[in-house]
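Posting this for the archive.
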Amino acid sequence: MKSRFALVGRLSAQDLEQRSRFLGVCMGRTRIVVARAIAEAPAVFDFDMVFARARALEPRIARGTVYLLLRRLRDADLIRVVGETAASARVSAERVGDYLVLEG
């Protein structure tokens, strides 16, 4: 299942960054880019939408950065889960040395 999210209130990227910092979420340069992507997203969004928008702003953004920030914002009650949809693809993982390789 793929979670769909919504911002709690309509916040600008700067407001989202300031509230995140106030609630103890560390906001580095890449997380600020992700916050901007979230603020510019439609009212209801999912991981893939945010990741695509963040990648358009900063091509080197990692999937993990987006995932972790979404989770931290959810835990801080700045975004909420509004539903789930069937996942578009299955993901398989394989450990190669010290790395975990995801395919899907």
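Residues 69 and 75 are 10 Å apart (CA to CA). Confidence is low (pLDDT under 50) at residues 88-93, 100-104.
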